[in-house]
Write a sequence for this structure.
């Protein structure tokens, strides 16, 4: 389809060519070797452990064309790939921490029940049986100590070590492996990774006993592969199927839209100012803007269409909230501006009702029967809120992962 020309591409310019210009490059299938080289790039001490690396760069797998299914299985994907280099005495602690991390993330996304599955030695493996037995024992012990129910899949481990997989079930009842924790004694040996640590024992009559000095000796680290989301594309597909368009506010790509009613040259600019103020409740001059400041997805529709058509359009697009702003509201100064804000779509309408009532300091009408797509059949939850109260509402939903 195209030809690569230039310095070193065709083997020309030999005297001036830099080292490596004509070497072949490949698509990266995993981050493990690169993280091993990072560990090996410096002299390590037992005091440095555990050392944790994480990488979200794209990975590539040459999947068969018949197995590719939307976002759940791709040839190029992104993974929250992490590797923990630790001492063998730190294995259980690191595995328990990772399991706790997994539970916290999955409870936040409220993806329903998920299962733990322990995969043991496959038919084709590397390393010796003693290391495999020890690794399987460590993972099993971490699961049992944490009192988590799990199943065992004989032969389900990776070729380099046993693993714990977290299994999610999609809307069609199909299981997908997402998070994983894999224990690896083999890769550190193949890359000859070492760290300095005190000698294992002090024998009577040894130099350490005579001089009182601690003697250091190289030891091999243990590698823990871990991913919390697994493939981010697959995780997003499972989220989309789980929420069915009713995204929680904190994840919604369309959080709030301001709909104008009435005519007037001042309505458009005032609506734009309110939208900017709601989108950036922590707004400050650029030099004082904090890196962690909040930002919300706030749009506005100041077209000449009727309010009813704008509301229908906002519902179809899946906005979490819409707010109505009219010409009469222009009489109020911006700091006292009120908006009639209404809930469009959310998986937990009753919880939102309570929060709006708390923010508005008034009794919010009961939420009516909700339709299948998360909208209501009339009498939506709504309240007249000041701009400051709207900011408080959006901030509370975001902070509580609602």
């Amino acid at each position: 389809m195209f030809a690569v020309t230039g310095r070193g591409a065709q083997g020309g310019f030999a005297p001036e060519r830099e080292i490596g210009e004509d070497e072949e490059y490949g698509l990266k299938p995993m981050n493990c070797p690169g993280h091993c080289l990072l560990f090996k790039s410096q002299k390590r001490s037992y005091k440095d452990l555990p050392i944790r690396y994480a990488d979200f760069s794209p990975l590539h797998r040459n999947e068969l064309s018949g197995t590719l299914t939307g976002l759940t299985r791709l040839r190029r994907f992104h993974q929250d790939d992490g590797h923990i280099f630790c001492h063998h005495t730190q294995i259980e602690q690191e595995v328990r921490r990772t399991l706790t991390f997994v539970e916290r993330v999955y409870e936040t996304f409220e993806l329903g029940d998920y299962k733990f599955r322990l995969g043991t030695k496959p038919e084709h493996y590397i390393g010796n049986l003693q290391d495999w037995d020890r690794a399987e024992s460590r993972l099993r012990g971490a699961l049992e100590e944490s009192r988590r129910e799990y199943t065992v899949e004989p032969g389900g481990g990776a070729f380099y070590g046993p693993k714990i997989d977290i299994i999610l079930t999609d809307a069609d009842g199909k299981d997908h492996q997402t998070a994983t924790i894999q224990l690896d004694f083999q890769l550190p040996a193949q890359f000859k990774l070492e760290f300095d640590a005190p000698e294992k024992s002090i024998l009577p009559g040894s130099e350490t006993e005579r001089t009182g000095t601690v003697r250091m000796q190289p030891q091999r680290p243990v590698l823990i592969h871990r991913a919390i989301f697994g493939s981010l594309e697959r995780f997003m597909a499972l989220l989309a199927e789980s929420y069915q368009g009713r995204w929680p506010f904190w994840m919604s790509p369309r959080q709030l839209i301001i709909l104008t009613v009435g005519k007037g040259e001042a309505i458009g600019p005032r609506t734009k100012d309110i939208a900017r103020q709601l989108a950036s409740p922590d707004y400050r001059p650029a030099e004082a803007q904090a890196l962690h400041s909040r930002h919300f997805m706030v749009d506005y529709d100041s077209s000449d269409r009727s309010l009813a058509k704008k509301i229908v359009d906002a519902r179809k697009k899946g906005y979490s909230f819409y707010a109505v702003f009219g010409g009469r509201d222009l009489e109020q100064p911006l700091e006292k501006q009120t908006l009639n804000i209404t809930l469009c779509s959310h998986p937990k309408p009753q919880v939102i009702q309570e929060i709006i009532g708390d923010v508005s300091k008034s009794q919010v009408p009961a939420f009516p029967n909700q339709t299948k797509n998360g909208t209501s059949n009339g009498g939506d939850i709504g309240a007249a809120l000041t701009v400051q109260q709207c900011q408080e509402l959006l901030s509370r939903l975001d902070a509580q992962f609602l």
Q: What stands out?
A: The chain has a mean pLDDT of 81. Residues 91-109 form the longest helix (19 residues). The chain is about 30% helix and 25% strand.
